[in-house]
Every structure is written in structure tokens, then in C-alpha cells.
Records
---
Amino acid sequence: MEIPIIMGTETEYGISVKNAREQDPVAASTLVVNAYKSCRDDIPSTATAVTWDYDQERPLMDARGFMAEAETPISETDTSSAVNDILINGGRYYVDHAHPEYCTPECANARDLLLYEKAGELILEVSRVAAERLLLDNQEIIIYKNNTDYKGHSYGAHENFLMSRKVPFDAIVDGLMPFLVTRIIITGSGKVGTENGSEEADYQISQRADFFEKEVGLSTMVNRPLINTRDEPHADDKLYRRLHVIVGDSNMSELSIYLKVGITSIALQLIEKGVVGKQFTLKEPVAAIKSISRDLSCKEPIELADGQQLSPIEVQRAYLKLAQQYLTPEERTPIVEDVLEKWQYVLDNLEIDPRRLSRHLDWIIKKKLLDAYRQRHGYEWDDAHLRMMDLQYHDIRPDKGLYIRLLKNGHVQRLLNHEEIVHAMHYPPVDTRAYFRGTCLRRFQKHIYSASWNSMIFIGKSGGLDKIMMDRPHFGTQKVVGELLNNCTAEELIKKIRGNASR
Amino acid sequence: MSTEKQQEHLKRHIDETEDMQPDVENGEMDEAFVEDLDSLLDEIDEILEEDSQEFVESYIQRGGQ
């Protein structure tokens, strides 16, 4: 493939302070994010805080080729944007609106991305504990990795995929829409009840489906589109676009996260190859995602634009088949091969009986737990205890989080081990530019003035600033710069890079 | 493929996938889970936030992205 796979996720967490006189989510988020700086032992706490280089941000650039008028509130100008932490694992940790948000570093495969997203959960928990120490004894900070408060307010879990600028945006819309709408049977986190004026149900597959109101658009906060047109590659925009997927749920299950990013990057490869066109175009995608979310059998057919009736399992199978057919041997790396196998595995099992996946996929794991608890106490679906369980499934505290309890008791499928997740809190992936960013922060923090996804600004010897652009996300890897970074000073590094650039 | 053959093919593929064990066989839950279920539900009784009703009602977020 022309463009290497580079992807990352951003997760907004829900936050609440128990026994607070009044809820102030911005203050609570700020407290949590700042607490992480003070509790890390891997960077000297006296070091100058590195700021975020906002010059590189253009959130209103539209993929359809124009610069948009602001249609959503933008946080960059408010005070919360000052709370910003660039992590030595190459990721970013900050306050976005009224939520703590963690962005993974750029990853080159689905397993790494799963690993770094899980590292983010630990980073949130470590800082939550540190922040809680600053509060009154009876107060608790509660953080949920979910997407809703059940009252019509949703916060997102976004995925980002680097793509070639050559692929027309219309082709992405055509090829991706049916895929995204049907993949919720794999990626849904499950939700008790419904909201935002959508059709009632006791339990549904997706947390986010109720919130999507149009097919394509720029907004991420109001009138949300299934396909988001934000076009801000944080890289050379002549070569690349960044596809910003906003329709996904926040997942706890490792398999759900792994497949979510794994199969989506494969679908995008198929679109780049031109093998997915309009053959799966849905008649009414916005209505379809809502009805699929309410069909716990995953078998009810949805109508395609050409009149065909296919179940979401069948649509997913069609993409899988194209992947098996068209991915080249070089593209079928061991991880891609594993993703294909597990994709087939979950589709096969969903077809036989979704309950077969009650160790594997979030919406089914959660449903099993809710069913058992309902039976024990005779609760109806609208009982507050069940909504509480739904929330608490996503609680990131090891002693309170229901998903984490299931994990510890061996009741959910593991793909990672704990040691590697801890390691990923402190070290970047080695095969993207995140390696350069994270390693520079570890080695030269005192010399770094600011950073962003595609830039690093060093403080020069005479106090001036030296900006290094990183416009190729697959450069700056350990293979290329590892030896250099580990054997030179900050000044030597700048000199060396400048020398190469001027040659 | 006939439905029967298709099911057979599905089963075979599933058996071959290492490390992935289906949880429900013929509609029955897996034994390990059933054995643990009671203690797990006891645990949930214990750790579920007290006064669920009030908590759930007061959990209000500002919309994000």
C-alpha cells in the first residue's frame, strides 16, 4: 500500500465528584490532568512545562476542500486549553471542554493501538488517585470510560486514520458508511435504555447510535454526522488526509478495541484500492444505525440503496471477504492476519448465537452481567440499579469498575498482559514519529519549549527557538533515529537535523 | 452451502481459532462463569454505588465531541 498504516484514538472520559457541593467538571478535569504531572517519577518535576504548539491546529479544515465557519464551540481559546500534557509515551493528555481526554501516540498496527489506549486508562487512574488526595476525605472522583450520561449528553471516542490525499473524499463516504453503520455489532459497548428522542428499547448495542443525526458533516458536538469531514492531517497535507471517525463507542473489552481499529483500517485499505464502491450503499444510514443498535440478534436485514436486504453480519462478511481476496501478502502482516481471523470468529459466533461472545465483546459481556443481576433481584429494565451497573461497567477504578472485576476474575478475553500496558505508559511505540517525540521528551525535556503532533520546538543555546517539523508520521522511528537520540545532546541533535535539512 | 454444512464449517473454524473459547455452548453459560456468578453478584451488591437512583439522576455531563 502506498500510505503506511498510522492510526490513533482519542478518548473523552466522563467525570464526577461524589459529595461535592456543586459539580464543576472543568475544575475536576483540570485537577486530574494536572495531578499526573506531579505523580510521575520518570520526568523531573522541576522541569519546565512543555506547552502545546497550537500553530499547527486547523480543526475547521473540511475534507471536502474548504475552510469552515465555526459551527461548534472551540476550546482552543478558553482557559482549559492551557491544561495540556505531552506524554513521554508520545500521547497527549489534556482537558477538552469539560472532560479529561487522552490521545494515544500514533501507532502502526492494531495491537499497539489497543496497548496505548489501555495505557491511557491506567494514566487516568493514576492521576485520579493523585487528584483525589487533594479533596476532602468524603469526596471521591469518579471517572467513566463511556459515552453518555443518559440525559442526551454524549462525549466521544474518536479514531484517526492516516490516508492518502489521492483518495477522493466521496469514495471514502461511499465505501465507509455501510461499514461504520454495521460494525457496531462488534464495536458497541452496550447501553441500558435510549435517549435523544430516539425509539425506545430496554437495551441496545451502541452507546453512541442515538446521537447521530446526519450522514456527513464537520461538527462533532451538535447534529453529529456518521462521517466526519474534519481534515486536519497533522502531517504533510499534500500527501495525506486524516480520517476522523467519530461514530465509535468507548470500549473496555480488549477484543472490541483491537477489532474496532483493526477492521476499520482494513476497510480503508480496501477503499484506497478501489474495491469498495457503492455496492453496499445503504438506503437510510442514520435510521439503520439506530435499528441495528436495537436488534440484539444482529440478523434483521437492512435495506440497501439498490433494494437488497442484508443483515449487519452479512455486510461485515462482505467486507471481510473482500479483505481476504484483495489484501496483498505484504499487507497481510501477522497482526492483520490475526485481525482477519478474529473478525471471522466474531461474525461466525454472532451468527450462531451472540451469547457465545459474552467473554469477548463489550455489549454482550455487559448484557450477560445485567441479565444475571436482573434475575437475582427481579429488576425491570428501567430500574436505576441497572443504569448504575451500566455506568459502573466503565468505572476505571480497580475496586469499583465492573469490567475490571470481570477481567481480574478471568471472565473476559485478554489480549494483553498487564506489564506491557504499564510499559506503554512510559515508552512510545518504536515505529512511528511518536518514538521521536516521546524519546526527545524523555531525554531532552529541559530543552523543549513546545510540541504538537507534527512539530517540536527546542530552546536553542542563545535562547532562540528551533522548530523541527515532523510531517511524515512514519518517520522518526527507532530504526532511523534511535541511535542518534540516545547518543547525543539536544544541541547536537538540532545541529545534525539542521545539517541534513540544508544539504 | 447448505445450512447444515455452513454450521459445520463455522464450528470447525471456531475450534481452530486458538485462545478464543466461546462462552455459551447450546445456550448454556460457561461453567466457570456460572460457578462464580453468585459471588460476583454478591460483589456487585457490595460495590454498586449506594443510592443508585440518586447517583444516576445526578450524573450529568456537559456534551463533548
---
Amino acid sequence: MLCLWGLTVRINSKLAKFAAVGLTLAYTGLAHAELNVFACEPEYAALTKALAPGASVYAATTAMQDPHQVQARPSLIAKMRRADLVVCAGAELEVGWLPMLQMKSANAKVRSTEEGLFFAADQVDPLDKLAQVDRSMGDVHAQGNPHLHFDPQRLLKIAQALSAKMTALDPDGAAGYQAALADFSQRWLAAVPVWQAKAAGLTGKKVIAYHTSFRYLFNWLGMEQVADLEPKPGLPPTSGHLASLLKRAGEGDVLAIIVASYQDRRGADWLGERAHLPVVMLPMSVGGNDQSRDLFGLYDSVLALLNGVK
Amino acid sequence: MKIQHPISNPGAALLALGCTLASANALALDPTLTNPAISAVVDGYYQSSDRPMSERTEGFGLGETELALSANIDDMFYGKVTAVLESSDGESEINLEEAFIQTLAMPAGLSLRAGRFMSDIGYLNNQHLHTDAFTDRPVAYRALLGGHYFDDGVRLDYLAPTDIYWSLGAEAFKGDSMHAEDETGSREFSNLGVFTAYSKFGGDIGDAGSWMAGLSYLRNQNGRFMPHEEEAGAEEAGHGHSASYTGENTYAADFVYKWAPQGNYKYRHLTLSGEYFRVTGLLSDEAPAAGAKRRQDYHQAWYLSGVYQMSPNWSAGLRYGELDAQALEADEMQSQKLRETELSLGWHQSHFSTVRLQYTHQQGANFDGITDDNILTLQYVMSLGAHGAHQF
């Protein structure tokens, strides 16, 4: 699992050396000090790994963990202490833990986006920005929806900016980063039309989903989330709210109920059983299921799961 | 140590503070000097009877109402101010609990903090009271650290570049709230009274578990009790933020372990923690009572706590704590013991609001007449304003 890459490298430096031999065959000319990268979410660990194959990458969270609610735990402080670059979604997704890690890790290199701090949301225009935010609205982000990685266009822009950031931090590795970006972009641009062809039948389909986790996926595929299992963002489903969803599902136009790998599926199962709708658990990120070994596998798996309910 | 300004019209002061809050964007995005993170904590309760060394008294009351302001000052400094409004015996006071600056860009994992701040000894001490899972601190904290020990001073902290979390720190404080009982008020206390040193370790056990453990030492220059010749009365269990039982050396060991299924804190998680304190050097050598019979020349206190968040809306906690302290009574050290078993049930509408019901059973021996008491507390604690990132 990708989320364990960083760990593997740490625990088994010998194994890592063997792995490095393989990587060196593919990307020669990377014989310099590699970047030490701390990624807040597994999707950005996977992207960094693709764009800097020699870098030591640590993922702070897994696809089974809600990135809104992470403990500023000692292991993360120790990892950030030694990081050259911190890569996060941004748009306040990590507001409950990243500032504490920065304060405690006493690492001046990763404090500012002018240096070793990178927010994906800063590189693109997020959906659903809000002019006014109030706690009564639940856990909403004024800076827009931060679950950006299911938009292939936005992700490519983020990849380009991340590559440029790594080049700026590590100019000696420029040629390697350029080669890796070219390779990733080419494979990505080749994959997108294939995915779109696979998803052609999903256009216009309506789903009920948990949170706005797949906002960008539905936007890209032309699907519509007609209702949310959460009564308000961040609040768990209530029985009253589920009853209203059952009524909505009764209109007969809903394809499925979608939950992400870190979300509790009990509410979805309750609704699915009564409304006779399939419940689909999609991997929220790389490592969210066995197929999602990298970003390509993640997209493949999500589309296969969605196509499976047709 | 406390700067107390009894205000003639606390209502007006609160109103002014409230207006400041309302005019600022409560959900400050990235806190800056023109747009700092502003937060407030409101805490109210009803308690069925008094507890020793606690600020919560019988009946209706307010806990610490807290107003905090924080921001990065520039690329080198972070600053925070926390004002606490307390009301006891019909009087309101504003205390400054925190007013510190901290460096952000020192090299080699070093950081420096100066001003008034909470000492980093032990596990609970540097945590804000409103994040606790119980209405009061364990008896160990109330007796030996005045609830939580914050003071004016400096701290140097070092974080090692190791895979396992390992930090080392040292602090120097004024130490006024840690003075030994002064019966005549004539004792000259050192105004550089407290020095601390601590080390913490931590890491993960798989995806699901995380731990931290620490060792601390606190040297209190003013901690030895100097009995007066004529009348050497028993120590009074004090109120406020002052330590009730003092000594020259405090040794502490702490641990915390947190677990969540697959490390996902969204729905369920468990926190186990415990701390042990031992305070030695209770009496001054020059004191006439130094020759008094000493059955035991130390205070000792500990607690163990387990809190389970069973759903986003409900949590339950169980805590057991003991205090075994010494007090000079008629030229002889007498043991005073207090044992507390506490059960708390919390209801959380969101991360920001908690309503808590707590049952406390106290068993005392030679302790303010407490033998076998049952206390019920109903409390709300809510925070408004900026999301604060919590410590582990």
C-alpha cells in the first residue's frame, strides 16, 4: 500500500536500496540528495512519488482516515521536523492539525508556501467557494471544496506546479523532475480519454452520496449528487434526515448511494435496503482498496465500481 | 503571579469583548495580524457540592470563560494571548493565562517561548482545560500544580531529528503560584523560583495506535515549608491557581495512548492516559520542625484515565486518581489522603459543543473532613470562533 512507502523506506533501508536500484534503472542521473517529502493525504504522496521517484515520501494519512480529523500526533511532528517539502490539499482541509504540526515541528523550511509548503488548492480554482461561512452551516470550507484529486484536469495542473516547486527546492534534480513530469503527463493525458469513454454511460446519472467527497468526480463525469447523507457537512446522518432521503430516493431516478472508504456505511446501508438501491463504497484515495495502488489505479477502480452498478 | 483586575462592571467588559469578536471574521482563514484567530470558550455548570482545591463550587457557576487571540507576528514570531474571566464569591476577575511569543524559524529544531504560558511538564499541563474529558483536573494537578501550572518565564525546546519523536526542553519561571505556605507573610521568596526540565517520546503502533510518554522534573526554590515557631498549623487547601502542597523537587512520569479503528478519528476513538507525581523536600532544614517525626517526607499523586468516543455525538470517560500528601500538624507530619473515582458522559452536537454529566466519588482520610462523598456535575463547554488545532 502506498501509504506505507515512507515507512518501508524508513524501516528497511536495505530493502529501499534494492528498490532504488530498480528506480535508478528507469531514471538515471538522480544521484544527489533526494527530497524528504511529507504528504498530508495519500493522493499527494502518490503524485509526489510519480513526480520524484527518488524522493523519500511519507503519507500522514491513509484513505481509511478522514483527513478533516487527524491527530497532531508525535510521529507526524517527527516526520515534519525532517521534511524538505510538505504537500497538502489546502483550502483549510488540514486546518485542525497542520498548524499544530508546523508549530511543534520547529522546521522553518516548511512554514511558508514561498518555501517548502505546497497547497494543491492554491494551484487551481476550487469549486464551491463561499463568500460567507458560518458554523451553523457545518464543516464547510470558505476556500472551496478541497477534495480536488478526482478532477483529471485540475490534478494535471497541480502536478505541473508541484514539479516546479520541487525543481525550485532542489535545482540539481531539475532534469529528473522534468523527465518524471513528462512521463506522468503523457500517461495521464493518454488515460483521460480512456476513462471518459468508460464513463460515458454515467453521464446524467443521479446519486446520493456522503459529504461532498466526490464533488469533482461527479462534476467531471457529468453526474449529479441529488442528496447528501450528512444533514450538514461534517455532521453524521440522523434518522430524520435519512427518512427524508428515503422519500427522495422514492422518486426512482437515483442510481446508487455512494460512500467513501473512510466513511461509516451504516446510514447508507439503512437507506439502500429500504430504497432498494445499491450502496457503493469508493476508495477515497490511493490505498482505499486493493486496486488503487497509484492514481491511475484509483481512477480505474472508481470507474469500474461505478460502472458495476449500472 | 496572577494579575487580578477586579472589574467594577464585568457585564460591560464582556460586552466590549463580545463586540470585538463579532466585528472580526470569526472563521479567520490564515490568521494574520489584521485578521488574527479569535476564539472564545464558554463554560457553565451546576454542581451538587464543593470539591477540594477546585474552582467549581456548589450550585450554579461559571468555569473559565476564555478569550484567545493568536497569529503569526512575522516570519519569525508567533504570538498568543488568552484572557480568562473567572467569577468566584460574586466577584469577577480577568486573569491572563497566556501571553507569549514563540519563535518559528530557529535552526536545528530549536524553539524559544517567552512570556506567560503553560509549562510543558507532564501530559495534561499544557492542554487547555476546555479540551479535558472531565469537569476538573485530576486531584494530582489540583493539589500539586494549582490545577494547571502557567507562569511568567522562558522555555527552550529542542526536537531531535529522529524517526521516533523525541523532544527535550527546559523552562525557568517566576514561580509565585508555587510558593510554600507562608504563615506569617514575612518570608522572602526567590523571584526566580521554578526550573523545569522534561523529555518526551512518541510514535505510532501501526495505523491505529499512537503513543507519547514523558519524564519531567520541576525544581521549586520556594517549595520547602518553613514552619513558624509558635503556631504550626495545618496547611489550608487553597483555591485559585496556587499549588496546595509544595516541595522542592517534583518528579513526574506520564503516558498517553490513543487508538482509533484504522486510525480514523471520525467516528470512534479511545484515549488512555496516566501520570505519576512525587514531590520531595517538603520542609526547610532550618525549620524548628525539621526534627519532627517524619513518617513520610514526600507527596505522591497519580491518576489513570480512559475516555472512549463511541460516536461523533457521545463519549464516556472513567478516571481514578489518588493523592497522598503530608501536612504539618502540631509539629508532626500527618498524612492526608484523597481518592477520586470519576465517571463522565459527554454529548457533542459538533466538535465545538459539549454537554457533560459527571459523577465523582471522593474518599478522604484526614482530608478536610471528607470521608465518603458523592458529587454530581452538569456542565457545558463550548467554543466559538476560529478552529483551534489541538495538541495530541
---
Amino acid sequence: MRFVAIKMLVGDRAKYLGIVMGLAFASFLITEQLAIFTGLMTRTFGFITDTAIADIWVMDPKVQFVDDIKPMQDMQLYRTRGVDGVEWAVPLYKGLLKAKLENGNYQTVIVIGLDDATLIGSPPVMLKGQAADLRRSEAVIVDTVGAAGKLSKPSPVPGQKRIPLAIGDTLEINDNRASVAGICKVSRTFQSQPVIYTTYSRATTFAPKERKLLSFVLVKAKPGEDVKALASRIKAVTGLAAYTRDEFKELTIRYYMKYTGIPINFGMAVLLGFIVGTAIAGQTFYSFTLENLRHFGTLKAMGTTNKTLLGMIVLQALMVGSIGYGIGVGAATAFGKLVKDTELAFRLPWQLLVITAVAISLICVFAALLSIRKVMKLEPAIVFKT
Amino acid sequence: MTIQKDNPFPCDEETSTKAVAVHCKGITKAYGSGSEVVNALNGINLEVRTGELTMLVGPSGCGKTTLISIMAGILDQDEGDCVLFGKSFKSMSDLEKTRYRGAQVGFVFQSFNLIPTLTAAENVAVPLLIRKIDRKTAVEKAGETLKNVGLGDRLNALPAQLSGGQQQRVAIARALVHDPRLIVCDEPTSALDHETGFRIMELLQYAALCADRALVIVTHDPRIFDFADRIAKMDDGRIVEVFDSPEDMKE
């Protein structure tokens, strides 16, 4: 009877396509919104991911997330270095400063200051130049998206494309001259501001004069040292906050989840996709069943058991569900490929596919349940009613 | 459209030993409840024999359709019992009743009730598919049955591509394909013109009727009374008279 169920379903082209498109739309919307949400959330801790060399991040205890800079005194670096189990500890500056471009415009940039001696925390991927070039006078390394976007220069020919910032170009950061010595690739930031790497001492020169300028201390644990235990020890000895890489990512995500409207906004979009999908697919599937009620009655009269009818409806729901899910997820993946190099945050880990599959299954179960209830209660004697 | 000369349906041509196919005793059935109760059947006693074409006739609302629904096991009576080939529906569970119906009863409906997205052959194969016969075998057998009702050239046609008469032939083939022992037909000619209706009745009489099978037709079309072996006249939920031939009824 599987054959009959499938032919009943696909034979009614309009309804079949309606159900599949409804589910595909729901699947696409849920996957796409969740992927953008995940992409955005990933951007919030992109800098932590890029600075993978550090086992532990040490910071002011009041810091709530990676961009919430509460500077410390430089002596905290030495206190951290004194804790048992620390292989090395280096300073890191992170701050938002204003850069004056060649055309006189100002652009806020994220300045990262790396330990002068070791350059630990340097960009993960160098596209042009190398990290060691930072040792040159006034040198900075600019991220490629920023260089080609917000920091790019206007073309001398009006109406032509802007010219990306290149090695040798200069800009002013807080009235200090900076010369581009390299172009790097970094994880996109949540604020979408250009990222500029330089040395710690130069970064603190760029920054407005303050008593405290040390943003983070990056720590490497000695080989065989338990990283969590070391973080606890640093916390106990220095009175600062010390998080492992994953803990700091979690702290950052938790902040965005708790204090920003991002989850609720995306949650609403996902819920909307779910509701619209349920409404379209559920209603169309139910109306398909209603239209076929006489035929289900005929099958029942001719000896089809309730169990077989149940199997037929479940098969129909599974079929439209799988096809709709496939189309929706496929479209979302294609969309992701399309926006790969744009400002749009899009990240599609396999877990999202599972979440969408569960959501689409729920829609199908809901749609099928309505129909199953109707067919199970159906009196086969309706076949004699004209 | 030609019907094969040699009757290909597996019927025993010997019709002298007529057995009781359906025995209804004291059947009552009411619809609704309280003050809105409608008594559709009021103590029906009727025997339907194999090898006979029995017609249930009477005005609309007299309970004909309710009675064949109970005889075919698709509706439960309130009181009394209906025994089909020695087996009482009352003693069967819903599942047993469904399975027994699938094996023993064939249906022909006024509005054909063919599944519009299945071809003629696939529609006819449905009773075999219900009995878990594999699709290839079922469709092959359905094709043979369709040839026998004169539709050998329309096996792959969808119901919408067939005329009313052709659709009813498909429905008859579907009722016959699994060789049931009781065939119930509800107004099989009322959606058809006179000539087509006449041919459908000829086909039913020729193809469906045999010594070990009973045929019950509900109708209020007097033009087809002549095909009946027995006619049970109903009114107001009762059988008012049973005629042993159409001539008796005319008299």
C-alpha cells in the first residue's frame, strides 16, 4: 500500500508542491536564521579563536565579554608570571581607536597590541608581509576585509572602485602615524570594525594616555599542567579573573545571549519559520487528507486496516518532510555559499541541520496527527454516501 | 468495447445448489440520539443466497444503503445479527471484520470511488495490494480482469480519462479481482445513462454472478429490475415484501 500512498500524494501536484514548498520554506528559514545567529555568536568570540596559542586569558574580574575591556596595571603581568605552572605570560592590548584615513575621514578600528618581544597573539593568517614586520618602525598589520572595505582609499577616477589599503600605505591613529606592513586574515568581528595589529608598546602609544592600559594577559601553561587548575590558581593568587579559552568563549556568548536582543530577534524569526511552515504544510496536508477522505474510506471498506492507513499517512508525511527538508537545507547551504565573503555572518555546523530536522519532523508529526485522527475515526460506511 | 465470449471469471456454472450467503436476523439501526433519533432499520430479516442477484428496492431514505452497509460489515447494527457465509460479524473484532471484508466482499459504488491518481489497472489492483500481494503480480492480475470487462486497451488510463460507464467497469473489475463471495453494489447505474446502465447490469450479471457468490444491488432504478433473481422491497426501515422474480413484483 506504500505505492498507493505515494501515488495519492504525488498525483495531486498542486497540493503536493504546496506541502513540500511550505516545508522547504520553513526548513530554509529555520536553517538560515539559526546559521546567521550562530555566525554572529561565533563572531563575538572570533578574537579568542584567533588567539589560539593562549591557554588562559587573565583579565580584570569585572570583564563580562571579550570586547568589554577593563584595563589593568602592567604589574598584573608580572604577578601572573609568578604563579606556579605558568610557562609564559604576555601582555595584550585591545581597544577601539579612531584612525584618520588619507582622505581625511575617520574610522573606528580595533587595535590589537602584541607583546613586543614574542609577538604572541599575531594574526592567524598572513596574506601579505609577515608578523615579524611589526618590528619595523610605525608598522601595523591590517585585516584584509578592513583594508578592502572601511579603510580603502577612494579611486582617483570618480565613479571607479575604491582601492584597498596596501603595504606602504599610511594612516593616522590618534595622531600617530602608522604604516601598513602587512595584510592579514582574521575572524570577522562582531562590530565589523577593521582590525589593526601592532606591538604592545606602539598600541599603548596610539591609545589615549591612561594609568592602566593592559587589557589581557595571555598565559601558556607548562606542559602537563592542568589548565583549569592553573586558571583557578592564577585567580587565587592575583585576584584577577582567569579563564581557559573555552570558558572565555562561553562567558562572551552568555553575555550576548543574556544582555542583547539578538537571541530573541533570531528566536522570533525561527519561530516564525516554524509557525508559517506548520500553518502552510499542516493545513495543506490536512486539506489533502480531507479531500481524500472518501478514498481512505473506500480503502477501509475494502479491507485496509487502520494500521495500514496510519502507515500510509506517516509515509506521506515522511516523504514531504524529507523532500521539503532537503530543499530547504540545500537552499540555505547555497545561500551560505553565496554570502560567504560578505558582511553577513553565516555558520552552518551539523548541529543546526539536526535542529532543523527535528523542527521539520515536528511539523510533519503535527500535520500527520491531524490527518491520522480524522482517518482513524472515519466510518467506512461513508463510501455509500454520495 | 468487447467482453470476452468465454466467461473468464472463476465461477462454478452449477447454480442448482443455492446456499445462504448472508442471513440477517432482527437487524435494527438508529441514527442520532434523544429526540432526534431516526430509526433507519426496524427489525430486518433477510436471506441472500449464492448464485442469485438480489435487489433491495424502495424509496429514498427507506434504509437500503444502511442494510447493505451492515451486510458488508462496514456498519454495526444496534440489535440483531448478520451472518456472512456462516460467520457472524457480531463475534468478530474490528480487525477481524476488516480482514474478513477484504477477503470476502467486493464493492461497487454509485460514484465509482476510484482513486483519481491511480491508473485503471492500479485501481483494480488495490484489493490485491490490501491482501499484501506484490505490486507486479497485483497489477498483472488487475490487467487481466480489466481485459475481461472490456477495458484491455485502457489499463494505463486515469479515471478522469474514462467515461462514466468505463469508470464503473473499472469499479466492477476492482470488486471482482480478488474473487470475493459477496458483491454489494450501491446504485451502480444511477450515474449512468440508460444504455450504459443496461450494459453495466449485463456485465454484473455475466461476470459477477456465479454459484458460490451472491450479488446484492441497491437501486431505485426500475429499468434494471429485470436483472434481479429476487427483489426485496423496503419501506420505512422494514422489508415489506420479497418477490421471487421481477414478474412477481410487476404483478
